[in-house]
Amino acid sequence: MTSALGAAGELAIRSLIERAPLASSLAQAFKSKGFTLALVGGPVRDAILGRLGSDLDFTTNALPQETKKILKDWAENIWETGIAFGTVAGKRGDTTVEVTTYRSEHYNPESRKPSVEYGKDILGDLSRRDFTVNAMALELTGDKPEFIDPFNGLQDLSKKILRTPVKPDDSFNDDPLRMMRAARFASQLDFEIAGNALTSMKDLSQRIEIISAERVRDEFTKILMSPNPRIGITILVDAGLADIVIPEIPKLRLEVDEHHHHKDVYEHSITVLEQAIMQEDRLGGPNLVIRLAALLHDIGKPKTRSFIDGGGVSFHHHEVVGARLAKKRLQEMRFDSNTIEAVEVLTALHLRFHGYGDGEWSDSAVRRYVRDAGALLNHLHILTRADCTTRNKAKATRLSLVYDSLEARIDVLMKEEELSKIRPDLDGAQVMSLLNLKPSREVGAAMNFLMELRLDQGQIGEEKATAELLNWWKDRGSK
């Protein structure tokens, strides 16, 4: 245990004082009741790296009910959703804290939830942390702050390496989600995973099956939203974890894309993801939907691959199959319905542009493109552009210019016809009045006819729309 404060500890303390001044008042609140309190885990790591945020994790020898009493007096709001696992959270000002009783948790072989035993000291608590860089602490209730680093986390931090405080097999068996966390931290921090830990991940990858879908989803999302998701996704695939949590991705390594003979579909998909990330400013910053769509847009290819006489391979209707597979996978991972629907739509539409040629689409086709994309039009622009990964610079330039022309046409039609608000020239009430109908399927059919008319001919006005509707109704009756 490192008792001396040291340069790293001093840096962490300065960062804590500057960025989280309320931490000292919280420590004093615990000390006044006779308890210890230490900043622990990721916040210590981030304080040393000079990137401490306003979400702070602490550990204490106070039992959860005692912690709850202290936080009630100190915080403006508290919540105890994690109290069964020893954690009570609170918020004061802009600072959010989670305070957890010293603990030693482990998973039973078939359990999805950890059993919790409270520990006696901070060393035992730190030994159960996931990685040494997260097993450092700043004890704040002594005579002076004390930097605690029993597993040389500071050294590993300087080397940018992820090691487990105990044997990797023991750590990953206790909480298999730590294997996904390793991939996440590698992506977030640009760290390498120690060789013995990576070997253990490969050996124990099946253990991830006992973790709930929600926890797996959250870790996968953090990997995908990291600065460099390629690192984390590749680790998941190489370690065999992706075979269990999102098997559609490693299957892409088996395919050869008919348009990109120099790369498999897996590499193409990662490249599309990276190119989509480069355009996210169009969406206001990092965006989960576009990243999921970019990664998953081609997952229908393995099921649709067919070989062509004379050589070559095709993936007919892979966008349709892929949309269905993406929906199923994201449902199983417990993503929310809005995200699932958005990724499904984008996957289904990602090839639509390739029928545009050199701009031969009619205005009607452009209207349908906008209508089908709906609120996801900017997402579709990004995905389509990112999907052009050819190394042929002349071809890439041509595709970009053609898509520029499509966006320009959309902009013109948007100004002329307000495409984002496409509606038939008559509403439902008018249809029922003209055709003497009550709400029914017939009204829906009439509205569909009018929408198709609107898409084909643009805005034609109520008079012409009425005439067209009555003619359609007369023909329908005669049939």
Question: Would you write up a description of this structure?
Answer:
39% of the residues are buried. The strands form 4 sheets. The chain has a 7-stranded mixed β-sheet with strand order 3-4-5-2-1-8-9. It has a two-stranded antiparallel sheet with strand order 6-7. Strands 10-11 form a two-stranded parallel ribbon. Strand 6 (103-106) and strand 7 form a beta hairpin. The protein has 4 domains: 6-158, Beta Polymerase, domain 2, CATH 3.30.460.10; 160-245, Hydrophobic Seed Protein (Orthogonal Bundle), CATH 1.10.110; 262-420, Hypothetical protein af1432, CATH 1.10.3210; 423-478. The chain contains 24 helices and 13 strands. The chain is of the alpha+beta class and 479 residues long. Helix 1 packs across helix 3 (42-48), helix 15 (288-296) packs across helix 18 and helix 17 runs antiparallel to helix 18 (337-349).
